[in-house]
Structures are given as C-alpha cells and as structure tokens.
Amino acid sequence: MTGLRRVACLIGSAVALFLSTGGCSDYSYFNVHVTLDPSIDDTTQRNIDSCVVYVFAGNEQIEGHKVLTNINGTAACRAPYTGTDDYHNDTNDIGTMDYSTARSSGSIRFFIDMESLDQKPSVQGSAQGNVNPGQVISLNLVAESCGTTCQDVSGYK
C-alpha cells in the first residue's frame, strides 16, 4: 500500500469513527458532486464566473447564495478557468460541496446557479436527497445550459 493510500484509508477510518460516535446520529451529511453537462459549449463554459448554491427543504429556502468554493477557499467557478483542472486541462468536474442538517425527515434540494461574466444565469442544475440522520448521502448534480429558461431562485422564500 502506498503512503498516499495509507493516509486516505486512515482519513476514511477516522470519518467513519466520527460518524459512529454519539451526537453525530442527529445530523444528515450531504456530499454533492457538481459537474457540467458535457454538451455545454466551450464559450459558455469559459464565461461562467460564479457558482452559487441554494438549499431548499420542500418550498422553503434554508440556505441562500452560498458561493461554491474549492478546498483552499477560492471560488470553484471563475472565468476563463471554469471547467478546467489545476493544470488548465478540460474537465466537466466543478467540485464537491458538503452540507449537514439536523432535520429529522424530509428531503433537501440543492440548486446551483452559474452566472456568466455579464452576471446573468446561463447554466443551472439541481439534485435532491432524503434526510437520513447519522448517514452520509452522496448526490450528483449535473448543471445544464438553460438559456432563456433559467430560473430566478435568488429571492425565493
């Protein structure tokens, strides 16, 4: 086993141990992996300058205007590098966000709004998962071009 694999295994074991200890069973943990639909053209992709996440429980917005960031705190979407990796190679991967809730039931919907340089929505997507206290729920959110059909959820209550 390589050193990197050993570290990954230790981290995974620590997370599992943490979740199995007292108090953690009160929360549901969501990991939301955000990608771009591969059909999005390069121009649209490179013009995406911000990725903002909104979180809903039913029709209630419980978190608004959360900027999707990388692990180092920088914005995950910034023109002209949206849709490229650290070496500026093309990728559809935007990143993974985490979210936790103390709700005991229901579902949580994550909505991403990607704005272009002109500050207009151009790409959007959503993913939904059921609350399951004590569990990690993994979701895939694929953002697609929305053109003139983009939703405005910034003021949604």
Could you outline the blueprint of secondary structure elements for this entry?
Elements: H1 3-20, E1 28-36, H2 42-47, E2 48-57, E3 60-67, E4 93-101, E5 107-116, E6 121-130, E7 136-145
Parallel strand pairs: 1-7
Antiparallel strand pairs: 1-4, 2-3, 2-5, 5-6, 6-7
Verbal overview:
This protein is α+β, with helices and mostly antiparallel strands and 157 residues long. The chain has one domain (26-149): Sandwich (Immunoglobulin-like), CATH 2.60.40. The protein has two helices and seven strands. It has helices at residues 3-20, 42-47, and strands at residues 28-36, 48-57, 60-67, 93-101, 107-116, 121-130, 136-145. The protein has a seven-stranded mixed beta sheet with strand order 3-2-5-6-7-1-4.
Unreliable segments (pLDDT under 50, ≥5 consecutive)?
Answer: 1-14
Structural class: alpha+beta
Give the end-to-end Cα distance, rounded to a whole number of Å.
Answer: 50 Å
Q: Mind summarizing the main beta sheet?
A: 7 strands, mixed
The percent range for strand residues is 35-45%
Task: Kindly report the CATH topology.
Answer: Immunoglobulin-like
Radius of gyration: 17 Å
Q: What percent of residues adopt helix (DSSP H or I)?
A: 10-25%
Q: What is the domain total for the residues?
A: 1
Kindly state the mean pLDDT as a whole number? Answer: 82
* Run of helices and strands: HEHEEEEEE
Q: Quickly count the helices.
A: 2
